[in-house]
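#structure-requests
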Amino acid sequence: MQPSIYIKNILKTLPNKPGVYQHIDKDGKIIYVGKAKDLSKRVASYFTKNHENGKTYVLVKKIADIKVIVTTNELEALLLENNLIKQHQPRYNVLLKDDKSYPWIVIRNERFPRIYSLRNPKKDGSEYFGPYPSGKVMKTVLELIKQLYNLRSCSLNLSKENIESGKHKICLEYHLGNCKGPCEGFQSEEEYNKEVSAARDLIKGNITLVKQILKEQMKAQAAELLFEDAQKTKEKVDLLERYQAKSTVVNTSITNVDVFSVYADTHFGYVNYLKIIEGMVVQAHTIELKKKMDESESELLELAIPEIRLLYKSKSKIIYTSHKVSLALPDAHITVPQRGDKKSLIELSLRNARYHRAERLKNIQIVDPERHTKRIMEQMKLDLRMPVEPVHIECFDNSNTQGTNPVAACVVFKNGKPSKADYRHFNIKTVVGPDDFASMEEVIYRRYSRLLKENEPLPQLIIIDGGKGQLSSSLKSLDKLGLRGQITIIGIAKKLEEIFFPGDPVPLYLDKRSETLKIIQHARNEAHRFGITHHRKKRQKGTIKSELENIAGIGPAAIKELIKKFKSVKGVKQASQTELEDVVGKAKTQKILTYFDPNNN
């Protein structure tokens, strides 16, 4: 089935990442929720396959819009799919009933807490972790805890009075070494709780310390020649390293919370909203705000939060934000999480804000490439404080090896893209030795004196690969040509990606994700590649030429023919007498043979 142009454009911008997709009908209602390992491939499959199932065919016909939520991995996508299906009950989904809920791990609220799994959490003061969309992952965690820590599995009431009165007796688990016998007072509550605390860290995914302890234990066992024990410990370490369920485990204490994050560029801000109920994401939405007065991220959040809460009729009393805001909301407390599960929710929200921006920009690039180019040019003009947009950019780089065969390269970018037909090489003529400053001065003068002479258009931006020294040398040439002030010229130093402007001792540092910096880096890398390639060819030709020029009676024309035929000096050496005679004749062939083998007369 052929999708609409609108849907086609959405399909072109979907990421090759795991996540959840929502199919929406013309009335804005969610009609299907699905998960995917690769959102781009999975969603596109709805419109590229022939659907024999009539229900799927009808579903695809009704799709008017598609929204996606990017997740860290497939397990997280599975969890989120489950939450959204329960929340929205889409018409075309097989609804997941509560009695089919995923399992949780509980740390019981009791003296000498037990740790085990269950399906229906209760509000009894215990700690619940999950849900686990994979029972295998949950069992792995519980098995790890059992192997690492000696925690009880019995349901006895281990009150202080019961233990002191000797009401309980140790069981088989004690004799097997799986429990240290707190029921008879063989283990103190303090020692037991230390193990519970370590197990809690493991459940939450904080496994670095656990791995470190195990590795130390493994080394000690190996030193004592307990190789079987060391191998078992190594298997535990390997199991821990494969365990990656952290992103799917959320503490249920995070309930009825609104999460807001913002990602901004020069012109727009993208505010993402997540609704969290009992540790689960049940709603997600991103809005785009056009900046009017260069508003900060905090100001954008302050504008968006009331609007989104009104849209979703949210009454949550707890709000987590990515940036500090000065916003007074009745009966609501706003905080910026710094660590743990709350911080992870902010990071998830930011991922989706960034994805939404990338999707919008890709869509503009596909639907309106001129607008896309115009936006980038405007951004570069603003970032580099230019009077005009840098539609025509030229970038220069020097290349030499210990002062030999010095060359320079000029690459040209138009509308932010390489214009390879306009690339130029320069062989340095007036400079002796490895002098990058003088070489750059010569090349800039030759390039722009020629453009002026031939009445060719000048660039709006010149990029010099180098720091203050190369930039100053280039300015000397622009001064001689009377072009200083007519063209923006900058230097970029490789080490810290510092951008230097004439007369300004303080360099400019652009954001590493900046499109302006990416284009400058692309131009710099192209100039370096183009210059190195030319330099390598020149060096090779120089080696060949110097070797063959040493043969008396062999001139430039003969050398050219020999290289054309045999490709290298080695090829000439290995050629037979007949092959050489076919190229340069008998007399010159004899001279070549005598040169390479003086005994050949």
